[in-house]
Amino acid sequence: MATEKITAETRTEFGKGAARRIRRDDKIPAVIYGHGNDPIHVILPGHQTMMALKNGGANALLTLDVEGTEQLALTKDVQIDPIRRQIEHVDFVSVKRGEKVTVDVPIHVVGDAAPETLVVTENSVLSVEAEATHIPEFLEVSVEGAAVGTLIHAKDLKLPKGTTLLADDELLIINVTQMISASALEAELDEAEAEAGIEHDVADSVIADAQVEAAAVEAGAAE
Length: 223
Description:
The protein is an alpha+beta fold and 223 residues long. It is built from four helices and 13 strands.
């Protein structure tokens, strides 16, 4: 498994002001944890890091060159500005080749279930153990032709060689149910509201429209 190599700078200034200056220079503050060592604070190039994380997926593995020393780093947490959608900070965990790590791998659903069914993804990630350099980017689940009542559990998934399931075997991943029509859904909502004693007032605008229409009818009759 090839990893993206990124040259990192050692971070010596801390605090919100320093972090803002780093981001203004299109760089990203980050921390590398792991193996009982003190956290290593670094600064990463913004665009290159963003592309590496995008291409590597949720568990991107990067080779960080910190002052000439290469460090395999597994992405653990990425903080993103909710408005600008820019990466603000990244947490990594230090790993070694051949080392087993615990990760949550995304579930990708493919295929089309039987007509008039609804495919519900009950769990969108699955906890597994894999070698740090052989973490699957995602786990594929096919629902092609699946009928109403089909249940796919964690034990039903085919895992890549070297990947071990850590989640409960019976963890429900996919539930194929009967699709409900709009009219049936509306009827269920009305019934639920009636049981709860909820009453809806007629909107003033609706009343006003009815009054205008009635007036127009009367005027027409008078003519």
